[in-house]
Each structure stands twice: as structure tokens, then as C-alpha cells.
Amino acid sequence: MANNADEFRIRLAKSTGLTDSAIRAAWPEWWSEAADASPSAQAELRFSLARNLGLDPVTVLDDQFPKFIWDDSAKYKSFKGDDERDKPAITAFGKSVTRMLVKSVAQARPLVGMPASQLRQSILRNNQYVGLIELLATLWAVGVPVLHLRVFPLPAKRMSAMATSFQDRHAILLAKDSTYPAAIAFNVAHEIGHIACGHVTAGSALIDMDHDGVPQEQDGEELEADKYALELLTGDPEFQIEKQGQGRSARDLAKQVLAAGPEMRIEPGTMALCYGFATGEWPTAQGALGHIYDNAIPAWEVVNKIAMQQMDWTKLSDESTHFLKAVMGAPA
Ligand SMILES: [Zn+2]
């Protein structure tokens, strides 16, 4: 083979737009300088990268320009970017992670067709309310893995979350992070909504891009997933907080939702965010979160700690284990 691994790495980045961290995560552990001289090791390196990153194996050989396996089946919501350059990288990466992830847990119960009220009831049987931890535990229990991506296929982290499918299985991949669980709980509940409502094409993905709170023109599926999320989290698909009295401080709001939340079986942080949504008083709602939770922990740490514990690593190849651990920011 004419090119050595370093040259190939540069060509791969240039041709696909993949980040250095994504390529590094997919780079096999066994690779060494000594392997560079071996044509069979060079070939194995390229096939390994192709498997991990969803590249067309034919395009990684010789001096071709690596390309993703052609696939435009994924649905993108609020997408702004270069369709031809960005979408193949995100879709391929998401599908590849999903294919490995679903092997690590058996499916106990499919979520497709599951009404929000039924899922909420089953969670409330053993919990006070439906918060992030309760959602994560439920997803792993039914066999829908959920992971927070610490490695992104493209330089700008423009993704919020995605619901993905491999064969008859589903997974949820989170991209946006928060120091408080409530915002991420809503994202997770929204993605559950996409899966349960049958929005995710079999073997493909639905990607919610991050629109930074700027209202988007929402399609029917987005509205349906939002209603599903709201019903799952609060019991009412149209849940709205009515503001009584004049403005309140963040501390007062925290006090009120800490009292009313458990009573209504709504996680207090979720209730504070509902207040922000209803009133537009986001600084108050955000400030309240600081009083509601004892300490601020990045949600990704919580999500991936649970994933590490729930995954059956013995079901994964060394190659997949190495790649997934890198993608989830876990020590190798
Ligand atoms: Zn969505």
C-alpha cells in the first residue's frame, strides 16, 4: 500500500470532515509504528476505521478518498448546515455507535407504541417522580441503551440528541450537556417520544439539532415528541404553569417547586423549567435550579456512569469496547 497511516489519517480527515477526536477514538488500540510497514496491518487498520466510523470499505483502500456509506434515511430536525458534508458524518457515526451499543444489553420490552401515560405509571410505581435518573434506569431496564457522546463526529457540537435504530432495537445518544439534570431529562423524554411514536425509521436515526432555544418552525413529529415528553414528566401533555402574583426570586421559585413538585409527582427541576417556559423568566428558572439540586454535576457524567454499569462489556469485541469507551469519555 502506497500510503502510510499518517498520510491516511490526514486524507481521512480532509475527505470526511471528521474531527481528530472521532478519528482517534476509532483508531485501533493494537496499532503501532511497527505495524506501518505491514500491508496486512495497514489493511486491517483501514477496515477497522471503516467499521467504527461507518465508511464505505472500498473507499478506504489504496489512495482513494474515504467516503461514508451512502445513506440519506436519517431525519434531521432544525438542521442548519451543509447537507452533503455534515449529514453523512453524523448519521454514520450515530448508526455505528448504536450498532455496538445495542449488543451490550438485551431488549426486554420494545418502546414503540408505548403510551406516555403507561410508561409514567410504571415508573411511578417505584419512584416519587420521573426525573433523569428514573428515565435512565427505565431505558436500560427495557433494553434501550442511552449514552452521552463525548466525541463528536464534526467540529461544532450542533446536535442536541438523537434517537437511533439498529434492526429492531433502539438507542438514545445525547450530545448537549447541562450541569442540572432537568434539561437533559426533557431531551431524553423527547427522544423516548420519537421512539414510542414510531418516528424513527428502522435501521436509521432521527437527529434533533441544537437550536439554542430559538423557536423553530416545528413539524408534527416535534410537537408530538414534546407532548409525549411533557406527559411522561408531568402527567399532562399540555402541562402549563400559571404564574400567580408578581415576579419572584430564584430562591422563592425553588422553594415553591420543591414543595409543589413532589406533591404533584413532578421533579422540582422540571417544574422550574416549566415556569421558565410559561413566563419567559429564564434567569429565574435557571437560578432556581442552583437551589434545587445539592450540587451541580455535568449530566454527561451521570448518564455515562450508569451506562458503564449497565453495559455487558463481555458481549462486545475489543474493537467496539475501545471505540465506545473513547466515545463515552471513559478511561480505556
Ligand atoms: Zn425531536
Keyphrases for this structure?
332 residues; alpha/beta; 13 helices; binds zinc ion
Mind explaining what this structure looks like?
There is one protein chain. The protein is of the alpha/beta class and 332 residues long. The chain folds into 3 domains: 5-60, no CATH class; 75-239 and 297-327, no CATH class; 240-296, no CATH class. It has helices at residues 5-16, 20-26, 39-53, 83-101, 116-124, 132-142, 181-196, 220-234, 250-264, 268-279, 282-292, 299-310, 318-327, and strands at 75-77, 146-148, 159-166, 169-174, 205-209. It is elongated and about 75 Å long. Zinc ion (ZN) binds next to helix 7 and helix 8. Zinc ion binds at residues 77, 190, 194, 208, 222, 225.
Provide the fold topology.
Blueprint: H1 5-16, H2 20-26, H3 39-53, E1 75-77, H4 83-101, H5 116-124, H6 132-142, E2 146-148, E3 159-166, E4 169-174, H7 181-196, E5 205-209, H8 220-234, H9 250-264, H10 268-279, H11 282-292, H12 299-310, H13 318-327
Parallel strand pairs: 1-5, 2-4
Antiparallel strand pairs: 3-4, 3-5
Zinc ion is lined by residues 77, 190, 194, 208, 222, 225.
